[in-house]
Design a protein that fits this description.
- β4 and β5 form a beta hairpin.
- The strands form three sheets. Strands 1, 2, 3, 6, 16, 17, 19 and 20 form an eight-stranded antiparallel sheet that branches.
- With 262 residues, this protein is an all-beta fold.
- The chain contains no helices and 21 strands.
- The protein is 0% helix and 53% strand.
Length: 262
């Protein structure tokens, strides 16, 4: 098997109600997702548009607050030390208030989580938020629930020549209180690359996702602010596996964390 190596890009600060610069990956790495997004003030701020752009980096537009962002960067090295991990984004898909449709990767690539989520309504309103994120193994893509806002979503899609990417879900973690959830962790040999689930149990104004992160060599967790109901977290986990004697884009058998095929 080849290994998926992960690292953070540099920390970039959103200048408040405007786009941040890009958190970029180090030499030999490419952006694979959203490593860390943090509303620094914690009061009435909104993650209005967060975009992990393949080949560029991670940037954010946060309303009513500044936010710090770090790209999640990855590499899969061949025998010569070259990064052979190929990353692209699925098509932007628009939705209305509530659940939007899935933005799916094509059959030659596997979804590693979100590339972008965008709230069309004003990011200065405390009644507007991303309330729920789902990235499905079986759908090979992501969808979002926009509270009081139309939305746009796209998924991060990956492939490795001569290999396939096995994607599973991590442990499902709930936190019935304001603050951090425990980390959702992956099965042995898999790396957390995104969120299969991030669900804010409250729809009250000002009670939102304040911070989410992929912990390197750990799992995925989210911070639910001002929310006595709390929320849930589930990591999306990936492993690079060699296709000996098979075509580069072999059919993948997906498994849930309990081992059942889906």
């Amino acid at each position: 098997d080849e290994f998926l190596e992960l690292a953070y890009g540099n920390t970039v600060n959103d200048p408040h109600n405007n786009w941040s610069g890009n958190s970029q990956c180090g030499s030999g790495y490419t952006v694979v997702g959203m490593g860390n997004v943090d509303l620094t003030g914690g009061t009435n701020g909104q993650m209005n548009d967060v975009y992990a752009e393949p080949g560029v980096g991670l940037r954010a537009w946060c309303g009513n607050d500044r936010c710090n962002v770090n790209a999640l960067c990855g590499r899969v090295s061949d025998a010569s030390g070259n990064n052979v991990l190929s990353i692209s984004a699925s098509a932007n898909v628009n939705g209305g208030h509530g659940w939007g449709p899935f933005s799916n990767c094509d059959d030659t690539k596997r979804s590693l989580g979100l590339s972008r989520f965008d709230l069309h309504a004003s990011g200065t309103s405390t009644s507007v938020e991303i309330n729920h994120i789902t990235c499905s193994v079986s759908e090979n893509g992501c969808k979002i629930y926009g509270l009081n806002s139309d939305t746009t979503v796209s998924s991060m899609c990956a492939s490795v020549p001569g290999h396939f990417i096995d994607v599973v879900t991590g442990t499902h973690i709930s936190n019935q209180a304001h603050g951090w959830t425990p980390q959702s962790t992956c099965p042995a040999g898999y790396e957390a690359v995104g969120f299969a689930e991030m669900d804010n149990y409250s729809a009250a104004p000002g009670q939102d996702v304040n911070h989410f992160q992929i912990v390197l060599n750990g799992g995925a967790q989210a911070y639910y602010h001002g929310n006595s109901a709390g929320g849930s977290t589930q990591a999306l986990c990936a492993k690079i596996m060699e296709c000996t004697g098979l075509p580069a884009h072999a059919e993948i058998v997906y498994k849930n964390n309990d081992g059942a095929t889906s």
